[in-house]
């Protein structure tokens, strides 16, 4: 069942009216209605069941302001590859969690990627 928050739902529709990239949208199989929010594993399984090839990208938050701007430019260019989703390593390389959230928000709202964040744990 798809039940996004009202604010996010409105943001998706607003970006559609502006003809800008936005979140990846799919049909919710349980209701056959418009639904922009599905689990990544459901997207992966759907592609596999259809025998379709897909890509995803993993990004590490840069350590410098110049690196951040470079990554943002590259993300805008790489969207043409139509990745199923992108992934950010949370706080990678000594970066802050705030930067991970900032870049993930940019990727979703400004570029239109489906975003995942992960934490790597080590002993």
Can you describe what's shown?
The protein is of the alpha/beta class and 123 residues long. The chain is 42% helix and 15% strand. It has four helices and five strands; from the N terminus they run H-E-E-H-E-H-E-H-E. It has helices at 6-17, 40-50, 65-78, 97-111, and strands at 26-28, 33-35, 56-59, 85-89, 115-118. The strands form two sheets. The protein has a three-stranded parallel beta sheet, covered by helices on one side. Strand 3, helix 3 (65-78) and strand 4 (85-89) form a beta-alpha-beta unit. The model is unreliable at 1-34 (pLDDT under 50).
Count of helical regions: 4
How many β-strand runs?
Answer: 5
Q: Per the principal axes of the C-alpha atoms, what is the gross shape?
A: globular
Strand order, largest beta sheet: 3-4-5
Order of helices and strands: HEEHEHEHE
Overall helicity: 40-55%
Could you describe the largest sheet, including whether it forms a barrel?
A: 3 strands, parallel
The gyration radius over C-alpha positions equals: 15 Å
Average pLDDT, all residues:
76
Uncertain runs are: 1-34
The span between the termini is 38 Å
The helix-and-strand class reads alpha/beta
Strand content: 15-25%
Key structural traits:
single chain, 123 residues, alpha/beta, three-stranded parallel beta sheet, two-stranded antiparallel sheet, 4 helices, globular, disordered N terminus
Task: Offer a quick outline of the entry.
42% of the residues lie in helices and 15% in strands. It has 123 residues and is of the alpha/beta class.
Task: Break the fold down into its secondary structure elements and pairings.
Blueprint: H1 6-17, E1 26-28, E2 33-35, H2 40-50, E3 56-59, H3 65-78, E4 85-89, H4 97-111, E5 115-118
Parallel strand pairs: 3-4, 4-5
Antiparallel strand pairs: 1-2
Helix pairs in contact: 3-4
């Amino acid at each position: 069942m798809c039940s996004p928050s009202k604010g996010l739902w409105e943001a998706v529709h607003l970006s559609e009216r502006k003809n800008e990239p936005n979140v990846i949208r799919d049909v919710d199989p349980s209701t056959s209605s418009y639904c922009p929010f599905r689990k990544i594993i459901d997207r992966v399984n759907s592609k596999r069941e259809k025998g379709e090839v897909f890509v995803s990208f993993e990004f590490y938050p840069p350590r410098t302001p110049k690196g951040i701007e470079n990554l943002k430019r590259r993300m805008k260019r790489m969207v043409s590859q139509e990745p199923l989703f992108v992934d950010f390593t949370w706080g990678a390389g000594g970066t802050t969690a705030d930067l991970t959230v900032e870049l993930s928000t940019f990727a979703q709202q400004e570029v239109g990627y489906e975003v995942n964040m992960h934490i790597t744990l080590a002993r």
